[in-house]
Amino acid sequence: MTGQSSAAEGTTSPPTPDGVPFLGNGLAFSRNPVGAIEEWASLGDIVRLEIPGRTMYLVTGPGPIEQILVADHETFTISPAQRETFRGIEDHAVTTTTGERWERLRRALRPAFTRDAIQRYADRIVETTTTYVDEWEDGERIDLYREMRFLSVNVLADAMLDVDIRGREEVVMDAADALVDRANLRRPGQLLPDWIPTPTDRRFERTVTELDAYVDELISERRTTGLGDDVCSVLLDAHDAGDISLDEVRHNVVAMLLAGHDSPSVALTHAVRLLDGHPDVRAALVDESHDVVASDRPTGESSAALERTRNVVSETLRLYPPTLGVTRQATEAVTLDGHELPAGAQVLCPQWPVHRDERFWDDPTAFVPSRWQQPSDRPEYAYFPFSGGPRNCVGAPFARQELTLVLATMLDTVELDVSVDGPLTFTPSLQLRPEPDIDATVTRR
Fold first, then answer.
1. What is the CATH superfamily name and number for domain 79-268+417-444?
2. Is 48 helix (H, G, I), strand (E, B) or coil?
């Protein structure tokens, strides 16, 4: 469909794809959000969608995305959908707050994510990975995604929170699963009023209660053992200084545990799967690890020299971004790419179609890590796996280092022969988790 002239001179209404009565574009979105978004993106860089209960604008042009996230970021706030998704679990976290509170929380977290701090986490990332992978037996068949989740939550807890989470991982993972299930676009009861309890809601409340209790234990333990320079200590220091509340400490630790293990585990699963399908790239990474770190383990210093491994991380995040997209809401009327959006307009900036747009990427669906070796003139926001602008993911530098070091450590220790049980599809929720079983057979080097 073509855009119609609007009341504002020089602007047009974005195209709207055909939908179905009462459900509009919501039915296609819930059935296959990735496929629907790809199809709708072909209509233009800004597309108007009719979803039950609201209008949403799909934004897939790097220019408008940069305008939303960077240039005009003060004109946009986090969306009601984002607040609703994390309601009851991260209400006081940096992920869901705005204004003065968000600035205060971001400032409190900053010391844990400086360049020096990220470097300090490196040895613990490698040590935890080595300990975990050493438990895999030669010839063992593992559930790859599940193992990457266990590994990621252990790496995060040890490196960034300075706690041993072994034996308690499922408290975090169960809450993450309940959160993803509650946001699942296909779940029964998705359109029911909030006051009608569903099994999904009850499970969510139970797992959040258990996670909150565990985080309270964790915070108490950090008090007992003494504060250091980890994230939990940095937050507690800010609390002791009167800068943040104890609820804000708790909810930001919760947010770190949930997002900090979920996104890396998805990325690691895809990276291992892609490398299994490209043995030449995998061999090059093994050689690089041997050349860079010799007989020693990778470190923060050596990770900078693991160029091919870092390229694989970048390419994996391009092809398989961990989330469905970045959501925002306009606080006032705004013009994007010649289209006028009203105040209150909700926008979705999905990484998937932008990262695979042939206008910006040669052979866009192919796994080509070498594309990252040369500078490119593509727009900056043709690639934004961790969002962008002032509200970018505060943990992005840690996640990139984690993915690089975990991959290098694993590849130096084992070879994983991967099999996927059926076509690769994704959970239609906030995290683009793989739906089919992904197994791997371990061969120790």
1. Cytochrome P450 (1.10.630.10)
2. strand
> Residue ranges of the domains in the chain?
79-268+417-444
Asked whether 276 and 318 are in contact (CB, 8 A), the reply is no
DSSP for residue 328? E
Residue 11 tokens read as: 């602007």
Cα–Cα dist 136/146, whole Å: 13
Rounded CA separation 261/118 (Å): 16
How confident is the model over 120-146, as pLDDT tens digits? 899 899 999 999 999 999 999 999 999
Cα 128 to chain centroid distance, Å, stands at 21
Residue 206 token pair: 């139970």
Tell me the one-letter amino acid at 287. D
**pTM above 0.90?**
yes
Here the tokens at position 412 are 């130096």
Which is nearest to 37 in space by CA: 432, 437, 398? Answer: 432
Q: What are the E-state strand segments in 89-205?
A: 141-143
Could you report how far apart the first and last alpha carbons of the chain are, in Å? 56
Is the C-alpha dihedral spanning 191, 193, 199, 203 positive or negative? positive
